[in-house]
Automatic annotation (TrEMBL):
Protein name listed in UniProt: Holliday junction branch migration complex subunit RuvA
Subunit structure: Homotetramer. Forms an RuvA(8)-RuvB(12)-Holliday junction (HJ) complex. HJ DNA is sandwiched between 2 RuvA tetramers; dsDNA enters through RuvA and exits via RuvB. An RuvB hexamer assembles on each DNA strand where it exits the tetramer. Each RuvB hexamer is contacted by two RuvA subunits (via domain III) on 2 adjacent RuvB subunits; this complex drives branch migration. In the full resolvosome a probable DNA-RuvA(4)-RuvB(12)-RuvC(2) complex forms which resolves the HJ.
Keywords, alphabetical: ATP-binding, Cytoplasm, DNA damage, DNA recombination, DNA repair, DNA-binding, Helicase, Hydrolase, Nucleotide-binding
Organism: Metabacillus malikii
Family listed: Belongs to the RuvA family.
Region of interest called Domain III, as start-end residue ranges on this chain: 153-202
NCBIfam families: ruvA (TIGR00084)
Membrane spanning residue stretches: none
Limits of the Helix-hairpin-helix DNA-binding motif class domain: 72-91, 107-126
Main location: cytoplasm
Signal peptide bounds: none
Function of the molecule: The RuvA-RuvB-RuvC complex processes Holliday junction (HJ) DNA during genetic recombination and DNA repair, while the RuvA-RuvB complex plays an important role in the rescue of blocked DNA replication forks via replication fork reversal (RFR). RuvA specifically binds to HJ cruciform DNA, conferring on it an open structure. The RuvB hexamer acts as an ATP-dependent pump, pulling dsDNA into and through the RuvAB complex. HJ branch migration allows RuvC to scan DNA until it finds its consensus sequence, where it cleaves and resolves the cruciform DNA.
Length: 202
């Protein structure tokens, strides 16, 4: 795994840049290639993510470790690959993306290339409450101590509710169907169980 590359910008295209590192040129896909000035003749550091599949090895690069971390979080969302994650970062700054996820603003997320209503909801479902380490830099006001404490309490209540449903005889497959709805609310354990039963008994 290549953590970062330090070198000079040799070539810039709309999709990628080429970094000259001691005479070796690395092709790196970045969200906004033209922010790198080839003529400045200044050494730059690009934080990289190496994507490997059977027919391809590609490097994706970012200005900060936090931007790279957000890219990797987006890759964990069902239906989003490297190109999709890169397009999201290219179209909106990290603070906007994080705020949209935490505030469940799917209207903002669908503005990104390749992101429809279903994918936007999946991004929120998979990442809400899990970006605190990245948001510390880009949107620190979203993750105050009180909010983190509240989210931890909500998560505990939801976990307890899931266990209670299992005791009542519901299979994990059935519980998973109502989980997305439950995660959208802040309830006590009993309230989660009651709401889940309403959904399951329909």
């Amino acid at each position: 795994m290549i953590e970062f590359i330090k070198g000079f910008i040799d070539y810039v295209t709309p999709e990628y840049i080429v970094i000259d590192h001691h005479g070796l040129g690395y092709k790196v896909h970045t969200p906004n290639p033209f922010i790198y000035n080839k003529s400045a003749n200044e050494e730059v550091i690009i934080y990289t993510y190496q994507h490997v599949r059977e027919d391809l090895i590609a490097l994706y690069g970012f200005q900060t470790r936090e931007e790279k971390a957000l890219f990797m979080k987006l890759l964990n969302v069902t239906g989003i690959g490297p190109k999709g994650a890169l397009a999201i970062l290219a179209s909106g700054n990290p603070k906007q993306v994080i705020e949209a996820i935490e505030e469940e603003n799917d209207t903002f997320l669908v503005k990104f290339p390749g992101v429809g209503k279903k994918t936007a909801r999946q991004i929120i479902l998979d990442l809400k409450g899990k970006l605190g380490d990245i948001a510390a830099l880009y949107a620190p006001d979203l993750f105050t101590h009180e909010k983190i404490e509240k989210e931890e309490t909500d998560n505990l209540a939801l976990l307890e509710a899931v266990e209670a449903l299992k005791v009542l005889g519901y299979a994990e497959r059935e519980i998973n169907k109502v989980l997305p709805t439950l995660k959208q609310e802040s309830l006590s354990t009993d309230q989660y169980v009651k709401k889940a039963l309403q959904k399951l008994l329909k």
